[in-house]
Specification:
The complex is a heterodimer of chains A (402) and B (199).
Chain A lengths: L2 H13 L4 H34 L10 H11 L4 E3 L16 H11 L12 E15 L5 E14 L5 E12 L2 H9 L8 E6 L7 E2 L6 E2 L1 H5 L5 H9 L15 H6 L7 E2 L4 E2 L6 H23 L5 H11 L6 E7 L5 E9 L4 E8 L4 E9 L11 E13 L12
Antiparallel strand pairs in A: 1-2, 2-3, 2-14, 3-4, 4-5, 6-7, 8-9, 10-11, 11-12, 12-13, 13-14
Helix pairs in contact in A: 4-10, 7-10, 9-10
Chain B lengths: L10 H8 L6 H20 L1 H17 L12 H25 L1 H7 L3 H6 L8 H10 L4 H11 L5 H8 L3 H33 L1
Classes of the chains: A alpha+beta (402), B mainly alpha (199).
Protein backbone atom coordinates (compact mmCIF):
# COMPACT_ATOMS: atom_id res chain seq x y z
CA UNK A 1 0.00 0.00 0.00
CA UNK A 2 1.53 3.25 -1.03
CA UNK A 3 1.85 6.17 1.25
CA UNK A 4 -0.68 8.42 -0.40
CA UNK A 5 -3.36 5.73 -0.37
CA UNK A 6 -2.76 4.95 3.29
CA UNK A 7 -3.05 8.60 4.14
CA UNK A 8 -6.17 8.93 2.00
CA UNK A 9 -7.85 5.97 3.65
CA UNK A 10 -6.98 7.28 7.09
CA UNK A 11 -9.21 10.28 6.45
CA UNK A 12 -12.38 8.31 5.97
CA UNK A 13 -11.81 6.27 9.09
CA UNK A 14 -12.04 9.46 11.08
CA UNK A 15 -15.47 10.24 9.73
CA UNK A 16 -17.02 7.21 11.35
CA UNK A 17 -20.31 5.45 10.84
CA UNK A 18 -23.74 7.01 10.84
CA UNK A 19 -25.75 7.27 13.99
CA UNK A 20 -29.12 5.72 14.55
CA UNK A 21 -31.00 8.85 13.59
CA UNK A 22 -29.53 8.97 10.10
CA UNK A 23 -30.30 5.35 9.51
CA UNK A 24 -33.84 5.65 10.84
CA UNK A 25 -34.68 8.67 8.73
CA UNK A 26 -33.34 7.11 5.57
CA UNK A 27 -35.05 3.81 6.29
CA UNK A 28 -38.34 5.63 6.85
CA UNK A 29 -37.95 7.46 3.56
CA UNK A 30 -37.41 4.19 1.74
CA UNK A 31 -40.27 2.50 3.55
CA UNK A 32 -42.55 5.36 2.54
CA UNK A 33 -41.45 5.06 -1.08
CA UNK A 34 -42.15 1.34 -1.00
CA UNK A 35 -45.56 1.90 0.59
CA UNK A 36 -46.48 4.52 -1.97
CA UNK A 37 -45.52 2.24 -4.82
CA UNK A 38 -47.25 -0.78 -3.35
CA UNK A 39 -50.46 1.11 -2.62
CA UNK A 40 -50.51 3.05 -5.83
CA UNK A 41 -49.02 0.52 -8.18
CA UNK A 42 -52.18 -0.52 -9.94
CA UNK A 43 -53.39 3.05 -10.14
CA UNK A 44 -49.98 4.25 -11.27
CA UNK A 45 -50.05 1.81 -14.15
CA UNK A 46 -53.45 3.01 -15.18
CA UNK A 47 -52.20 6.60 -14.97
CA UNK A 48 -49.35 6.02 -17.42
CA UNK A 49 -51.43 6.44 -20.54
CA UNK A 50 -52.66 9.69 -19.07
CA UNK A 51 -49.17 11.08 -19.25
CA UNK A 52 -48.98 10.15 -22.89
CA UNK A 53 -52.31 11.80 -23.49
CA UNK A 54 -51.39 14.85 -21.50
CA UNK A 55 -51.88 18.14 -23.15
CA UNK A 56 -50.80 21.45 -21.78
CA UNK A 57 -53.98 22.70 -20.24
CA UNK A 58 -53.82 25.54 -17.78
CA UNK A 59 -54.94 24.55 -14.36
CA UNK A 60 -57.28 27.20 -13.08
CA UNK A 61 -56.24 27.40 -9.49
CA UNK A 62 -53.07 26.15 -8.02
CA UNK A 63 -51.72 27.10 -4.66
CA UNK A 64 -48.94 29.64 -4.44
CA UNK A 65 -46.56 27.07 -3.15
CA UNK A 66 -47.42 24.77 -6.01
CA UNK A 67 -46.84 27.44 -8.58
CA UNK A 68 -43.48 28.22 -7.02
CA UNK A 69 -42.46 24.60 -7.05
CA UNK A 70 -43.36 24.11 -10.67
CA UNK A 71 -41.91 27.38 -11.89
CA UNK A 72 -38.63 27.00 -10.16
CA UNK A 73 -38.09 23.46 -11.23
CA UNK A 74 -38.98 23.60 -14.81
CA UNK A 75 -38.29 27.12 -15.86
CA UNK A 76 -40.15 28.13 -18.94
CA UNK A 77 -41.70 24.79 -19.62
CA UNK A 78 -45.36 24.23 -18.99
CA UNK A 79 -45.85 22.62 -15.67
CA UNK A 80 -48.69 21.19 -13.83
CA UNK A 81 -48.27 19.46 -10.55
CA UNK A 82 -49.49 15.95 -10.53
CA UNK A 83 -50.12 12.77 -9.34
CA UNK A 84 -50.41 9.18 -9.37
CA UNK A 85 -52.56 8.32 -6.45
CA UNK A 86 -55.99 8.20 -7.87
CA UNK A 87 -59.04 8.56 -5.78
CA UNK A 88 -62.50 7.51 -6.54
CA UNK A 89 -65.56 9.58 -5.98
CA UNK A 90 -66.68 9.43 -2.37
CA UNK A 91 -69.33 10.99 -0.32
CA UNK A 92 -68.66 13.22 2.60
CA UNK A 93 -69.24 11.75 6.00
CA UNK A 94 -71.32 14.37 7.63
CA UNK A 95 -71.83 13.11 11.10
CA UNK A 96 -68.27 13.26 12.38
CA UNK A 97 -67.17 15.96 10.04
CA UNK A 98 -66.22 18.53 12.63
CA UNK A 99 -64.36 16.20 14.89
CA UNK A 100 -60.98 15.96 13.12
CA UNK A 101 -60.87 19.70 12.51
CA UNK A 102 -61.79 20.48 16.09
CA UNK A 103 -59.31 17.93 17.41
CA UNK A 104 -56.64 19.58 15.25
CA UNK A 105 -57.70 23.01 16.52
CA UNK A 106 -57.20 21.86 20.09
CA UNK A 107 -53.94 20.08 19.30
CA UNK A 108 -52.50 23.18 17.66
CA UNK A 109 -52.66 25.02 20.96
CA UNK A 110 -50.23 22.54 22.43
CA UNK A 111 -47.77 22.62 19.54
CA UNK A 112 -44.82 25.00 19.37
CA UNK A 113 -45.36 28.11 17.30
CA UNK A 114 -43.68 28.09 13.93
CA UNK A 115 -43.51 31.81 13.58
CA UNK A 116 -39.98 33.08 12.96
CA UNK A 117 -38.63 36.45 13.82
CA UNK A 118 -38.01 38.69 10.84
CA UNK A 119 -34.34 37.69 10.73
CA UNK A 120 -35.06 33.96 10.95
CA UNK A 121 -36.13 31.49 8.30
CA UNK A 122 -39.30 29.49 7.92
CA UNK A 123 -38.09 26.17 6.52
CA UNK A 124 -40.35 23.75 4.65
CA UNK A 125 -39.53 20.48 2.93
CA UNK A 126 -42.07 19.40 0.35
CA UNK A 127 -42.35 16.39 -1.91
CA UNK A 128 -44.50 16.63 -4.98
CA UNK A 129 -45.30 14.74 -8.12
CA UNK A 130 -45.41 16.82 -11.22
CA UNK A 131 -45.82 16.67 -14.93
CA UNK A 132 -43.09 18.56 -16.76
CA UNK A 133 -43.51 19.46 -20.40
CA UNK A 134 -40.81 20.30 -22.92
CA UNK A 135 -40.90 21.51 -26.51
CA UNK A 136 -38.32 19.64 -28.56
CA UNK A 137 -36.22 20.63 -31.53
CA UNK A 138 -37.96 19.81 -34.74
CA UNK A 139 -41.40 20.23 -33.23
CA UNK A 140 -43.55 18.33 -30.81
CA UNK A 141 -43.32 18.02 -27.09
CA UNK A 142 -42.50 15.49 -24.40
CA UNK A 143 -44.00 15.10 -21.00
CA UNK A 144 -42.23 13.60 -18.02
CA UNK A 145 -43.69 12.66 -14.68
CA UNK A 146 -41.30 13.78 -11.97
CA UNK A 147 -41.12 13.43 -8.23
CA UNK A 148 -39.49 16.47 -6.71
CA UNK A 149 -38.23 17.20 -3.23
CA UNK A 150 -37.96 20.85 -2.37
CA UNK A 151 -36.27 22.56 0.55
CA UNK A 152 -37.32 26.14 0.98
CA UNK A 153 -36.17 28.81 3.39
CA UNK A 154 -38.18 32.04 3.52
CA UNK A 155 -37.45 35.05 5.63
CA UNK A 156 -38.86 38.53 5.94
CA UNK A 157 -35.49 40.25 6.13
CA UNK A 158 -32.94 37.86 4.70
CA UNK A 159 -32.47 36.34 1.25
CA UNK A 160 -34.21 33.00 1.04
CA UNK A 161 -33.50 29.87 -0.96
CA UNK A 162 -35.32 27.09 -2.78
CA UNK A 163 -33.43 23.92 -3.56
CA UNK A 164 -35.23 21.36 -5.69
CA UNK A 165 -34.09 17.84 -6.48
CA UNK A 166 -35.61 15.44 -8.92
CA UNK A 167 -35.77 12.07 -7.20
CA UNK A 168 -37.60 10.01 -9.76
CA UNK A 169 -39.02 10.34 -13.23
CA UNK A 170 -41.41 8.57 -15.54
CA UNK A 171 -41.87 8.72 -19.30
CA UNK A 172 -44.52 7.22 -21.46
CA UNK A 173 -41.85 5.48 -23.55
CA UNK A 174 -38.09 4.90 -23.69
CA UNK A 175 -37.98 6.98 -26.84
CA UNK A 176 -39.42 9.93 -24.93
CA UNK A 177 -36.81 9.46 -22.24
CA UNK A 178 -34.01 9.55 -24.82
CA UNK A 179 -35.44 12.63 -26.51
CA UNK A 180 -35.83 14.29 -23.15
CA UNK A 181 -32.13 13.79 -22.45
CA UNK A 182 -31.11 14.81 -25.95
CA UNK A 183 -32.94 18.09 -25.55
CA UNK A 184 -31.28 18.89 -22.26
CA UNK A 185 -34.08 17.84 -19.91
CA UNK A 186 -33.10 17.57 -16.27
CA UNK A 187 -32.68 14.04 -14.95
CA UNK A 188 -32.91 12.19 -11.68
CA UNK A 189 -30.55 13.60 -9.09
CA UNK A 190 -30.29 17.01 -10.68
CA UNK A 191 -30.70 19.92 -8.34
CA UNK A 192 -31.80 23.43 -9.10
CA UNK A 193 -31.44 26.38 -6.79
CA UNK A 194 -33.52 29.52 -6.78
CA UNK A 195 -32.59 32.52 -4.70
CA UNK A 196 -35.55 34.25 -3.13
CA UNK A 197 -35.59 37.94 -2.46
CA UNK A 198 -36.37 38.84 1.10
CA UNK A 199 -39.10 41.27 0.18
CA UNK A 200 -40.91 39.09 -2.28
CA UNK A 201 -41.68 36.15 -0.07
CA UNK A 202 -43.45 37.15 3.05
CA UNK A 203 -44.37 34.44 5.45
CA UNK A 204 -48.13 34.80 5.16
CA UNK A 205 -50.27 36.45 2.55
CA UNK A 206 -53.98 36.87 2.07
CA UNK A 207 -56.40 38.22 -0.46
CA UNK A 208 -57.04 41.44 1.47
CA UNK A 209 -55.86 44.89 0.53
CA UNK A 210 -52.36 44.28 1.85
CA UNK A 211 -51.71 41.04 0.02
CA UNK A 212 -48.69 40.08 2.04
CA UNK A 213 -49.06 40.47 5.77
CA UNK A 214 -46.40 41.86 8.02
CA UNK A 215 -45.42 40.07 11.18
CA UNK A 216 -47.46 42.55 13.21
CA UNK A 217 -50.54 42.08 11.00
CA UNK A 218 -50.34 38.33 11.41
CA UNK A 219 -50.10 38.67 15.17
CA UNK A 220 -53.13 40.96 15.14
CA UNK A 221 -55.35 38.49 13.25
CA UNK A 222 -58.31 37.30 15.29
CA UNK A 223 -57.89 33.95 17.00
CA UNK A 224 -61.57 33.18 17.20
CA UNK A 225 -62.54 30.89 14.29
CA UNK A 226 -65.67 32.82 13.47
CA UNK A 227 -63.96 36.20 13.59
CA UNK A 228 -61.06 34.87 11.55
CA UNK A 229 -63.37 33.49 8.89
CA UNK A 230 -65.29 36.77 8.76
CA UNK A 231 -62.05 38.70 8.41
CA UNK A 232 -60.80 36.35 5.70
CA UNK A 233 -63.88 36.72 3.54
CA UNK A 234 -64.47 40.39 4.27
CA UNK A 235 -62.40 41.34 1.21
CA UNK A 236 -64.31 39.10 -1.15
CA UNK A 237 -67.01 40.46 -3.39
CA UNK A 238 -70.57 39.61 -2.41
CA UNK A 239 -72.39 39.48 0.85
CA UNK A 240 -71.06 37.82 3.94
CA UNK A 241 -74.28 38.30 5.87
CA UNK A 242 -75.19 34.67 5.62
CA UNK A 243 -72.09 33.76 7.59
CA UNK A 244 -73.81 35.19 10.62
CA UNK A 245 -76.36 32.43 10.36
CA UNK A 246 -73.80 29.68 10.64
CA UNK A 247 -73.83 27.52 13.73
CA UNK A 248 -70.98 26.21 15.80
CA UNK A 249 -68.33 24.29 13.88
CA UNK A 250 -69.71 20.96 15.03
CA UNK A 251 -73.31 21.69 14.08
CA UNK A 252 -72.20 23.41 10.90
CA UNK A 253 -70.24 20.50 9.59
CA UNK A 254 -72.90 18.11 10.75
CA UNK A 255 -75.27 19.70 8.28
CA UNK A 256 -72.92 19.94 5.35
CA UNK A 257 -75.20 17.94 3.11
CA UNK A 258 -77.39 20.97 2.57
CA UNK A 259 -74.38 22.68 1.00
CA UNK A 260 -73.66 20.16 -1.68
CA UNK A 261 -73.30 22.62 -4.47
CA UNK A 262 -73.59 21.70 -8.10
CA UNK A 263 -72.44 23.78 -10.97
CA UNK A 264 -74.09 24.71 -14.23
CA UNK A 265 -72.62 26.69 -17.07
CA UNK A 266 -73.15 30.01 -15.37
CA UNK A 267 -73.98 29.38 -11.78
CA UNK A 268 -73.79 27.00 -8.93
CA UNK A 269 -77.04 25.76 -7.62
CA UNK A 270 -78.33 22.87 -5.70
CA UNK A 271 -79.89 23.41 -2.36
CA UNK A 272 -83.61 23.02 -2.87
CA UNK A 273 -85.50 26.23 -2.33
CA UNK A 274 -82.59 28.57 -2.81
CA UNK A 275 -82.34 31.00 -5.69
CA UNK A 276 -79.50 29.80 -8.02
CA UNK A 277 -77.91 33.23 -7.96
CA UNK A 278 -77.82 33.21 -4.18
CA UNK A 279 -76.53 29.68 -4.27
CA UNK A 280 -73.81 30.66 -6.71
CA UNK A 281 -72.81 33.58 -4.56
CA UNK A 282 -72.54 31.35 -1.54
CA UNK A 283 -70.59 28.73 -3.38
CA UNK A 284 -68.03 31.21 -4.68
CA UNK A 285 -67.86 32.77 -1.28
CA UNK A 286 -67.35 29.49 0.52
CA UNK A 287 -64.82 28.22 -1.99
CA UNK A 288 -62.75 31.36 -1.80
CA UNK A 289 -62.84 31.20 1.98
CA UNK A 290 -61.64 27.61 1.87
CA UNK A 291 -58.78 28.30 -0.55
CA UNK A 292 -57.76 31.44 1.26
CA UNK A 293 -57.52 29.70 4.60
CA UNK A 294 -55.90 26.63 3.17
CA UNK A 295 -53.46 28.01 0.64
CA UNK A 296 -52.73 31.47 1.96
CA UNK A 297 -52.67 30.84 5.66
CA UNK A 298 -52.41 27.22 6.68
CA UNK A 299 -49.33 26.58 4.56
CA UNK A 300 -47.51 29.55 6.05
CA UNK A 301 -45.61 30.28 9.23
CA UNK A 302 -48.09 30.57 12.05
CA UNK A 303 -48.35 31.19 15.76
CA UNK A 304 -50.06 28.28 17.52
CA UNK A 305 -53.24 30.15 18.38
CA UNK A 306 -53.71 31.26 14.79
CA UNK A 307 -53.17 27.75 13.47
CA UNK A 308 -55.80 26.55 15.91
CA UNK A 309 -58.25 29.23 14.77
CA UNK A 310 -57.69 28.32 11.12
CA UNK A 311 -58.71 24.71 11.71
CA UNK A 312 -61.76 25.98 13.55
CA UNK A 313 -62.60 28.32 10.69
CA UNK A 314 -62.36 25.51 8.15
CA UNK A 315 -64.98 23.66 10.15
CA UNK A 316 -67.35 26.59 9.67
CA UNK A 317 -67.22 26.76 5.89
CA UNK A 318 -70.30 25.33 4.20
CA UNK A 319 -69.28 22.70 1.70
CA UNK A 320 -66.22 21.36 3.50
CA UNK A 321 -66.56 17.60 3.75
CA UNK A 322 -64.73 15.09 5.90
CA UNK A 323 -64.14 11.89 3.98
CA UNK A 324 -62.26 9.78 6.51
CA UNK A 325 -58.69 8.61 6.97
CA UNK A 326 -56.52 8.70 3.88
CA UNK A 327 -52.82 8.40 3.03
CA UNK A 328 -50.78 11.27 1.66
CA UNK A 329 -48.21 11.09 -1.13
CA UNK A 330 -45.56 9.46 1.06
CA UNK A 331 -47.95 7.07 2.77
CA UNK A 332 -48.73 8.90 6.01
CA UNK A 333 -52.24 8.51 7.34
CA UNK A 334 -54.30 11.53 8.22
CA UNK A 335 -57.79 12.97 8.23
CA UNK A 336 -58.93 14.22 4.85
CA UNK A 337 -61.33 17.05 4.19
CA UNK A 338 -62.42 18.11 0.74
CA UNK A 339 -64.09 20.95 -1.06
CA UNK A 340 -65.18 20.69 -4.66
CA UNK A 341 -64.22 23.42 -7.09
CA UNK A 342 -67.30 23.07 -9.24
CA UNK A 343 -66.33 25.71 -11.73
CA UNK A 344 -63.08 24.00 -12.69
CA UNK A 345 -64.15 20.42 -12.01
CA UNK A 346 -61.60 19.83 -9.33
CA UNK A 347 -61.87 18.54 -5.80
CA UNK A 348 -59.43 20.03 -3.31
CA UNK A 349 -58.26 17.54 -0.72
CA UNK A 350 -56.43 18.45 2.45
CA UNK A 351 -54.86 15.77 4.65
CA UNK A 352 -53.77 16.62 8.17
CA UNK A 353 -52.84 14.92 11.38
CA UNK A 354 -55.58 15.90 13.83
CA UNK A 355 -53.47 14.91 16.82
CA UNK A 356 -50.59 17.25 16.00
CA UNK A 357 -52.41 19.75 13.72
CA UNK A 358 -49.67 19.13 11.12
CA UNK A 359 -50.58 19.66 7.51
CA UNK A 360 -49.54 16.45 5.74
CA UNK A 361 -50.64 16.69 2.16
CA UNK A 362 -52.65 18.40 -0.52
CA UNK A 363 -54.28 17.04 -3.64
CA UNK A 364 -56.42 18.41 -6.41
CA UNK A 365 -58.39 15.70 -8.12
CA UNK A 366 -60.21 15.94 -11.42
CA UNK A 367 -63.95 15.41 -11.00
CA UNK A 368 -65.26 16.60 -14.35
CA UNK A 369 -64.42 17.28 -17.97
CA UNK A 370 -62.32 20.03 -19.43
CA UNK A 371 -58.80 19.42 -18.15
CA UNK A 372 -57.79 16.58 -20.40
CA UNK A 373 -57.65 14.03 -17.58
CA UNK A 374 -60.11 11.36 -16.66
CA UNK A 375 -62.08 11.70 -13.46
CA UNK A 376 -60.25 10.68 -10.33
CA UNK A 377 -56.83 11.82 -11.56
CA UNK A 378 -54.97 14.03 -9.11
CA UNK A 379 -53.28 16.93 -10.87
CA UNK A 380 -51.72 18.19 -7.67
CA UNK A 381 -50.19 15.85 -5.13
CA UNK A 382 -47.97 17.28 -2.45
CA UNK A 383 -46.64 16.10 0.90
CA UNK A 384 -45.37 18.59 3.45
CA UNK A 385 -42.55 16.66 5.03
CA UNK A 386 -41.05 19.02 7.54
CA UNK A 387 -41.37 22.54 8.84
CA UNK A 388 -39.10 24.38 11.23
CA UNK A 389 -37.79 27.79 12.18
CA UNK A 390 -34.08 28.11 11.51
CA UNK A 391 -31.44 30.75 12.02
CA UNK A 392 -29.46 29.83 8.93
CA UNK A 393 -29.84 28.25 5.52
CA UNK A 394 -29.40 24.79 6.92
CA UNK A 395 -31.62 21.76 7.01
CA UNK A 396 -32.76 21.54 10.62
CA UNK A 397 -31.56 18.59 12.62
CA UNK A 398 -34.18 18.99 15.30
CA UNK A 399 -37.49 20.71 15.73
CA UNK A 400 -39.36 18.59 13.26
CA UNK A 401 -43.05 18.90 13.77
CA UNK A 402 -44.33 16.27 11.40
CA UNK B 1 -40.20 -12.20 2.42
CA UNK B 2 -40.04 -15.93 1.93
CA UNK B 3 -36.96 -15.56 -0.18
CA UNK B 4 -34.91 -14.64 2.87
CA UNK B 5 -35.60 -17.83 4.78
CA UNK B 6 -32.70 -20.21 4.89
CA UNK B 7 -30.76 -18.45 2.17
CA UNK B 8 -28.94 -15.24 1.50
CA UNK B 9 -29.94 -13.95 -1.89
CA UNK B 10 -27.45 -11.86 -3.77
CA UNK B 11 -27.96 -8.14 -4.21
CA UNK B 12 -28.78 -8.68 -7.84
CA UNK B 13 -31.43 -11.24 -6.97
CA UNK B 14 -32.92 -8.90 -4.40
CA UNK B 15 -33.12 -6.02 -6.84
CA UNK B 16 -34.66 -8.14 -9.53
CA UNK B 17 -37.20 -9.70 -7.21
CA UNK B 18 -37.99 -6.33 -5.64
CA UNK B 19 -39.55 -5.30 -8.94
CA UNK B 20 -42.45 -7.57 -8.06
CA UNK B 21 -41.99 -7.50 -4.29
CA UNK B 22 -40.90 -3.95 -3.42
CA UNK B 23 -40.37 -4.74 0.29
CA UNK B 24 -37.31 -6.81 -0.59
CA UNK B 25 -35.47 -3.64 -1.42
CA UNK B 26 -35.28 -2.88 2.31
CA UNK B 27 -32.80 -5.73 2.67
CA UNK B 28 -30.50 -4.03 0.21
CA UNK B 29 -30.73 -0.88 2.30
CA UNK B 30 -29.83 -2.77 5.45
CA UNK B 31 -26.81 -4.30 3.78
CA UNK B 32 -25.29 -1.20 2.29
CA UNK B 33 -26.57 1.93 3.99
CA UNK B 34 -23.67 2.25 6.43
CA UNK B 35 -21.02 2.04 3.70
CA UNK B 36 -22.83 4.45 1.41
CA UNK B 37 -23.35 6.89 4.26
CA UNK B 38 -19.71 6.67 5.29
CA UNK B 39 -18.56 7.39 1.76
CA UNK B 40 -20.93 10.34 1.43
CA UNK B 41 -20.03 11.69 4.86
CA UNK B 42 -16.39 11.72 3.86
CA UNK B 43 -17.20 13.55 0.65
CA UNK B 44 -19.79 16.13 1.69
CA UNK B 45 -19.96 16.09 5.47
CA UNK B 46 -22.25 14.22 7.78
CA UNK B 47 -25.13 16.68 7.71
CA UNK B 48 -25.50 16.52 3.96
CA UNK B 49 -24.66 12.84 3.89
CA UNK B 50 -27.83 12.01 5.80
CA UNK B 51 -29.97 13.45 3.04
CA UNK B 52 -27.88 12.18 0.16
CA UNK B 53 -27.65 8.66 1.56
CA UNK B 54 -31.42 8.53 1.97
CA UNK B 55 -31.80 9.91 -1.52
CA UNK B 56 -29.38 7.35 -2.92
CA UNK B 57 -31.65 4.54 -1.81
CA UNK B 58 -34.93 6.16 -2.81
CA UNK B 59 -33.49 6.86 -6.25
CA UNK B 60 -32.14 3.33 -6.48
CA UNK B 61 -35.55 2.00 -5.51
CA UNK B 62 -37.29 4.16 -8.10
CA UNK B 63 -34.81 3.10 -10.78
CA UNK B 64 -34.41 -0.55 -9.90
CA UNK B 65 -36.03 -1.37 -13.22
CA UNK B 66 -32.85 -0.09 -14.89
CA UNK B 67 -30.53 -2.22 -12.74
CA UNK B 68 -28.36 -4.55 -14.79
CA UNK B 69 -27.43 -7.72 -12.97
CA UNK B 70 -23.85 -7.90 -14.22
CA UNK B 71 -22.47 -8.91 -10.85
CA UNK B 72 -23.92 -10.28 -7.61
CA UNK B 73 -23.27 -7.08 -5.66
CA UNK B 74 -25.21 -3.85 -6.09
CA UNK B 75 -22.48 -1.73 -4.50
CA UNK B 76 -21.12 -0.26 -7.75
CA UNK B 77 -24.64 0.74 -8.76
CA UNK B 78 -25.38 2.35 -5.40
CA UNK B 79 -22.03 4.15 -5.24
CA UNK B 80 -22.57 5.37 -8.79
CA UNK B 81 -25.84 6.98 -7.76
CA UNK B 82 -24.22 8.40 -4.66
CA UNK B 83 -21.33 9.84 -6.67
CA UNK B 84 -23.73 11.52 -9.08
CA UNK B 85 -25.57 13.04 -6.15
CA UNK B 86 -22.27 14.33 -4.76
CA UNK B 87 -21.48 16.01 -8.05
CA UNK B 88 -24.92 17.59 -8.31
CA UNK B 89 -24.68 18.69 -4.72
CA UNK B 90 -21.30 20.31 -5.32
CA UNK B 91 -22.54 22.15 -8.37
CA UNK B 92 -25.58 23.50 -6.61
CA UNK B 93 -23.52 24.48 -3.60
CA UNK B 94 -21.02 26.30 -5.79
CA UNK B 95 -23.81 28.18 -7.58
CA UNK B 96 -25.38 29.04 -4.30
CA UNK B 97 -22.15 30.51 -3.00
CA UNK B 98 -21.45 32.54 -6.07
CA UNK B 99 -24.90 34.03 -5.89
CA UNK B 100 -24.91 34.85 -2.26
CA UNK B 101 -21.55 34.73 -0.64
CA UNK B 102 -22.67 36.13 2.65
CA UNK B 103 -25.37 33.56 3.25
CA UNK B 104 -23.15 30.84 1.98
CA UNK B 105 -20.46 31.74 4.44
CA UNK B 106 -22.93 31.22 7.24
CA UNK B 107 -24.44 28.10 5.85
CA UNK B 108 -21.65 25.78 4.84
CA UNK B 109 -17.96 25.09 4.71
CA UNK B 110 -15.51 27.49 3.04
CA UNK B 111 -15.30 27.74 -0.71
CA UNK B 112 -12.32 25.49 -1.27
CA UNK B 113 -13.70 22.59 0.72
CA UNK B 114 -17.17 23.05 -0.64
CA UNK B 115 -15.99 23.02 -4.23
CA UNK B 116 -13.97 19.98 -3.47
CA UNK B 117 -16.90 18.40 -1.74
CA UNK B 118 -14.84 16.96 1.03
CA UNK B 119 -16.09 17.07 4.57
CA UNK B 120 -14.27 19.28 7.00
CA UNK B 121 -11.93 16.96 8.83
CA UNK B 122 -10.37 18.31 11.97
CA UNK B 123 -9.08 15.15 13.54
CA UNK B 124 -5.45 15.37 12.50
CA UNK B 125 -3.17 17.70 10.68
CA UNK B 126 -2.43 14.97 8.15
CA UNK B 127 -6.10 14.57 7.32
CA UNK B 128 -6.29 18.27 6.58
CA UNK B 129 -3.30 17.97 4.28
CA UNK B 130 -4.93 15.11 2.44
CA UNK B 131 -8.12 17.07 2.01
CA UNK B 132 -6.20 20.03 0.64
CA UNK B 133 -4.19 17.82 -1.67
CA UNK B 134 -7.31 16.25 -3.09
CA UNK B 135 -8.29 19.69 -4.32
CA UNK B 136 -5.47 19.41 -6.87
CA UNK B 137 -7.20 16.54 -8.66
CA UNK B 138 -9.67 16.75 -11.50
CA UNK B 139 -13.19 15.82 -10.49
CA UNK B 140 -13.07 12.67 -12.63
CA UNK B 141 -9.81 11.56 -11.07
CA UNK B 142 -11.11 12.31 -7.61
CA UNK B 143 -14.31 10.32 -8.12
CA UNK B 144 -12.40 7.28 -9.34
CA UNK B 145 -9.74 7.51 -6.66
CA UNK B 146 -12.19 7.99 -3.81
CA UNK B 147 -14.40 5.14 -4.97
CA UNK B 148 -11.24 3.01 -4.83
CA UNK B 149 -9.92 4.31 -1.52
CA UNK B 150 -13.08 5.16 0.40
CA UNK B 151 -15.73 2.89 -1.07
CA UNK B 152 -13.38 -0.10 -1.47
CA UNK B 153 -14.54 -0.78 -5.02
CA UNK B 154 -12.37 -2.71 -7.45
CA UNK B 155 -11.35 -1.22 -10.80
CA UNK B 156 -14.01 -3.26 -12.51
CA UNK B 157 -16.66 -2.13 -10.05
CA UNK B 158 -15.65 1.50 -10.45
CA UNK B 159 -15.98 1.13 -14.19
CA UNK B 160 -19.52 -0.13 -13.74
CA UNK B 161 -20.26 2.51 -11.15
CA UNK B 162 -19.18 5.41 -13.35
CA UNK B 163 -20.16 3.77 -16.65
CA UNK B 164 -16.68 4.15 -18.11
CA UNK B 165 -14.19 1.62 -19.54
CA UNK B 166 -11.92 -0.11 -17.07
CA UNK B 167 -8.89 1.30 -18.87
CA UNK B 168 -10.13 4.78 -18.14
CA UNK B 169 -10.51 3.85 -14.48
CA UNK B 170 -6.90 2.65 -14.37
CA UNK B 171 -5.56 5.79 -15.95
CA UNK B 172 -7.66 8.11 -13.80
CA UNK B 173 -6.60 6.39 -10.60
CA UNK B 174 -2.96 6.23 -11.62
CA UNK B 175 -2.85 9.90 -12.55
CA UNK B 176 -4.87 10.79 -9.49
CA UNK B 177 -2.44 9.01 -7.21
CA UNK B 178 0.54 10.66 -8.85
CA UNK B 179 -0.96 14.10 -8.49
CA UNK B 180 -2.09 13.38 -4.96
CA UNK B 181 1.39 12.25 -3.97
CA UNK B 182 2.96 15.37 -5.44
CA UNK B 183 0.36 17.60 -3.84
CA UNK B 184 0.90 15.91 -0.50
CA UNK B 185 4.62 16.55 -0.76
CA UNK B 186 4.00 20.18 -1.53
CA UNK B 187 1.45 20.54 1.25
CA UNK B 188 3.76 18.82 3.73
CA UNK B 189 6.67 21.04 2.78
CA UNK B 190 4.55 24.12 3.06
CA UNK B 191 3.21 22.97 6.37
CA UNK B 192 6.73 22.48 7.66
CA UNK B 193 7.74 25.93 6.49
CA UNK B 194 4.72 27.43 8.25
CA UNK B 195 5.61 25.66 11.48
CA UNK B 196 9.23 26.80 11.26
CA UNK B 197 8.13 30.35 10.58
CA UNK B 198 5.97 30.27 13.72
CA UNK B 199 8.94 29.12 15.75
Amino acid sequence: MSSELERLQAVVVEVGYPGGESWARARTALTNAIAVERDGDARARSARPLIARWRATAVPRVGRRVLGLAGATLGATAVVLVVVLASSGRDGTNVAAADPLLVAARAALHQPSLFPRNNQYFYVRTEGRALAGMSVRGGGSITAGETIIRDEWRSVERPGLQRTRIVSEQFSSRADARRWRANGGAGVGSTSTLHLGATHYSLVSDNGPHGELTRREVLELPTSPRALLARTVSFLPGSSAWLATLGTPRSQLSSQSQYTYTYTSSSASASPGLNPAVQNDRYVYAYNAFTSIFNDFLQGALPSRLRSALYGALALIPGVQYVGTRRDLVGRRGAEITFSDLEHHLRDELIFNPHTSSLLGERQVVVGPGLGFSRGTPIVNLAFLNEAVTNRLTIPRTGEVR
Amino acid sequence: MEVLRGERPSDAELVLRSRAEPELFSTLFDRHFALVHRYLAARVGRAEADDLAAETFTIAFARRGDFRAEAPTARPWLFGIATNLVRNHQRSQARSRLADAREAAQAVAPMEEAELGIARVDATADARLVVQALAALDADQRDALLLFAWADLSYEEIARSLSIPIGTVRSRIARGRERLARALERESAEDERTKEAKL
